[in-house]
Amino acid sequence: MPAANPAALDFLLNRRSRPAKTLTLPVPTAAELAPILTAALRVPDHGKLEPWRLIVLTKPAMARLADLAEARARDLGLDAEKTAKGRGQFDQGQLAVVVISSPKAQDKVPLAEQVLSAGCVCLGLVNAALASGWGACWLTGWVSHDRGFAEAAFDLAPQESVAGIVHIGTEGSAPPERPRPDLAALTRWMVE
User: Fold this and answer.
1) Nearest CA among 117, 115, 124 for reference residue 161
2) Which CATH superfamily is domain 29-173 in?
3) What's the count of helices (H) and strands (E) in the chain, helices before strands?
4) What is this structure's pTM?
């Protein structure tokens, strides 16, 4: 019989991201963030390639990135709503961790597995922050997918991309519960 961990399963069955705009001060200190980051890196990593890296954004960095997002939006001719959304992620944020997908060139581990590993880091980071008592939210938005912004903001190498920006802070008001996936509708059992 396997050794169950009911507390861990209960946490996973009830975990909820918090909207980034509801996260407030205080945020984790560097010492409080270290075990969260350590836990986040315990993900599937075929070939031990470590195909990701992390950038911790503090409030002063967020202010600089908000200005950069606004300037990039102007250069791209984005409308006011998209501009505000790109800038707002950094204006409203107090602390965030950018997960950079950084695949390694080699033959044994497909690119898709390496990119998915970076996605696992994002989810691991959210879950570790939540388990530590903080609120957390995994965001992307146009700023994550615009090559010009991402290169200027995060010094991306040519093969790198932003997997996610995970905001962490003190939980504000809880959002209403949302509908969850219908397990029966999404699951097919193959018995033969």
Assistant:
1) 115
2) NADH Oxidase (3.40.109.10)
3) 8, 4
4) 0.95
